[in-house]
Write a structure and sequence with these properties.
single chain; 378 residues; alpha/beta; 2 domains; nine-stranded mixed sheet; 14 helices; 15% strand; disordered N terminus
């Protein structure tokens, strides 16, 4: 989960970004039943990281409502009726145990959403394990790591009006998906609702939550929660039509702060985004990550997004602040060089936001300068 933060009126055309075409999903008939297709239990997964053949799921089942039905070691379907309005798209890379645990939690939700997993070129047996343990899940096995573009592939596979994103180290509280789609149903110009995020283990609020709750962005009077200028993909439910209208996530950015560019384009097209504290997502950050690459790509993507959409003076101001505050090391230098190498296409594709959308980003400048949740460190 990336901690991009906050930020409608008149429509404005924004550059279309066509979702990538992906390989066909694994078909249930192609799965070998000898590979133990039964859903994994918590007890079987408590032994630790997988080595060799896929081992069954992992230790901690989290706290609070997410643990209901786990007393006997199996995550059982929780009470409630299925909701056909929402699907869930999960992207994963080299995190077999974690995505299996995430899927066991998703399959236990009362909403029973259709789930699409996009495996971004894992070599640790992730795709085979998902196909064996969760044959009801739609699997897209990409031969390469597509980053956030994997979400575009997943959204292209669903036909529900709403799509929730879930990372392989996050999970939704029971009932949150239904509450999200009820809210989206009631507000036809609302494109994104973002949930409260609890950090596990422990259940403390993520440092970004106060910034979401106290967002300075001004939105429509009818919004059911604070207006946002951006969102966090792994903690959000989106209207599929709005997502496809703006072309999904940019293929250029790959991964890291990719939400900000889409948020600007949604605002430009007349869509609203808001924080909804009634929704809850849990996040137990994976240790299987490359923090240096995340920082390098995050700095690069912030610069690219700034110069793709912000007017000249705000772009200079944001760039100056970024360059003054990033760590003064080789990694930051490489990130800036990466951004400079993209300057020709950035200038070619630059399309400044209309005033009502730019006002959202402008409202966030003070929060960005003082935030403790949005620092580029690794």
């Amino acid at each position: 989960m990336t901690a991009t933060q906050e930020e409608g009126p008149a429509p404005h055309s924004s550059p279309a970004r066509r979702p990538l075409e992906g390989p066909p999903p694994a078909h249930p008939s192609e799965k070998d039943p000898s590979k133990d297709p039964s859903p994994p239990t918590a007890h079987e997964l408590a032994a630790g990281p997988c080595e060799g053949p896929p081992r069954r799921l992992a230790a901690s089942l989290g706290t609070g409502p997410a643990r209901e039905g786990a007393e006997d070691g199996v995550l059982r379907l929780q009470e409630g009726r299925p909701d056909p309005r929402v699907s869930v798209v999960v992207i994963t890379h080299q995190r077999r145990d974690e995505v299996l645990l995430a899927l066991s939690r998703l399959r236990a939700l009362p909403e029973q959403p259709h789930v699409v997993v996009v495996d971004n070129g894992s070599t640790d047996g992730t795709a085979a394990a998902v196909a064996a343990h969760f044959p009801e899940v739609e699997l897209v096995a990409s031969p390469e790591n597509l980053g956030a573009i994997g979400r575009n592939l997943g959204v292209a596979r669903v036909d529900t009006p709403y799509v929730a994103f879930c990372d392989d180290d996050t999970w939704w509280d029971p009932g949150s998906l239904r509450a999200a789609v009820d809210t989206l149903d009631a507000h036809p110009r609302l494109a994104v609702v973002t949930a409260r995020i609890l950090v596990e283990p422990g259940g403390a609020e993520d440092p970004i939550v106060p910034e979401l709750r106290d967002s300075p962005v001004r939105g429509a009077d009818w919004l059911p929660g604070p207006a946002l200028g951006s969102f966090l993909a792994g903690a959000s439910v989106l209207r599929r039509d709005a997502f496809t209208e703006v072309g999904g996530f940019s293929e250029r950015l790959w991964l890291g702060g990719e939400e900000e560019l889409m948020a600007g384009d949604l605002a430009a097209a007349g869509w609203e985004l808001c924080y909804l504290p009634a929704l809850t997502v849990h996040h137990q950050a994976s240790t299987a990550r490359d923090p240096h690459k995340r920082r390098r790509d995050g700095i690069r993507n912030t610069l690219w997004t700034t110069w793709l959409r912000r007017p000249l003076r705000p772009a200079l101001r944001r760039t100056g602040h970024l360059l003054r505050t990033v760590p003064r090391d080789r990694l930051s230098v490489l990130a800036v060089l990466d951004a400079l190498r993209g300057l020709p296409w950035v200038l070619r594709e630059r399309q400044v936001l209309p005033p009502h959308a730019e006002a959202r980003f402008a409202a966030l400048e003070h929060a960005q300068r003082t935030s403790t949740a949005r620092r580029y460190v690794s």
